[in-house]
Fold:
Amino acid sequence: VREVCPAATEWKFALSFLLRFVDGLYSLIINFVLLLITDEVLSLFLNFAALGFLQSIDDVAFHLAAQGYLGDRMEDNCAIVKKLSLPRRVGDCFTNALDSVLFLATYAVMLAIYFYVTIADSSSDNKFGF
Structure:
């Protein structure tokens, strides 16, 4: 990667992963809250469609840049990004299972919050204001 793009550094690589994590976590939280507060099925579908559109804006911007609508320099950078690929991660048993561990942990936390909100909402008079 550094041969093609000398400005690539380890902290930029780590920052990109951190920002992708924050983006995914933020999206997950927004979707989960919308799921909890929406009363009608049609409103739920409309909210998810709107969120799907917002999440696809970055893909649209990348395609516009790749086709040259945002300048020649951006088009050249998009061509470089399309050609780059990272090698497959090789690690120990825990590192290879980390995706599954994080998925199950996220699922358990979301399920616990869902049950807490559901039980608290049914036992009190709309304590959460939803």
Notes: Residues 36 and 87 are 40 Å apart (CA to CA). The mean pLDDT is 84. The first helix runs from residue 10 to 37.
